[in-house]
Amino acid sequence: MSEISNGGVAVEAAPETRKIGVVGVKTRFGARPVHHAYEDLRLRVGTKVMVKSKDGDTEFGEISENPRIMDSRYYPEPLPEVLRVATEDDEKKVVRTEANEKSAYDFCRMKISELKLPMRLIEVRYIHSNKKATFYFSSDGRVDFRKLVRVLAERLSVRVEMRQIGVRDEAGMKGGCGDCGRTYCCSSFLKSFDPISVRMAKDQNLSLNPVKLSGGCGRLKCCLRFEHSHYVSVKKKLPACKKKVGGCDCGATVVRQDLLKEEVTLALETGDFMTVGAEDLMRLPTGQFSLKTGVQNEASLNVLPKENGPKR
Length: 312
Hints:
alpha+beta; five-stranded antiparallel beta sheet
């Protein structure tokens, strides 16, 4: 990026932009489509292609998003490239590669058992050239797999890489369907895993049922984080349950919060219930809440009969 002078003051010049062809490609092991750059190729959804991987190897993939022309400024980092349209030989090689992966998986599992290693093999992935194989496994601790690597390299005649992953990575790698009926977030669009805590479930007034809060990986669901910040901001505008609310002729106590509607249900000393929204409440300097003046005069309009009160 060059600099130009503007009245004696150095100003950073805007980066040059150009039009580039962009297409979504899902590779053999890709959990989600990845944008690739292409030039002078006739591509459409379903076209089999050969692309360049992050490691510089060649990978087999399929076009999953229609090609389009984009401004390069939307892609500050260089995009991987579509090298060419895949040939029939490329597709046959994929079949042989998948057979090699299954054979390597079975052999590795057998050797893990023989060597009594505290690890669980998850998946084996060969690169398209069949010169390197990556073995993904999980374990509770460190594993000395040097002997296993030597045995695998000698038997398979490839460069062997062992990669330990966690349960969340495993779920993203294998894929699946969540309780919501959609594909796992980790295998469809998430690019990284952020910390998830039980506090996020509490802030959203969710039932602390481990079965309902856990995803396919056995850990807390990633979606607990998606709207957490919104729920936190709403809770700041509402009094907590069991708190007293001033500004009412008869005492009022919060018995229920509805964070989605941004309102609370108050239990009155008369035995009735009243629902008020966040816009009808004001926070006092003491941190307590009170009904706004206009609401106090119209409180009777919002009173619910006893039988319509919150279920306990």
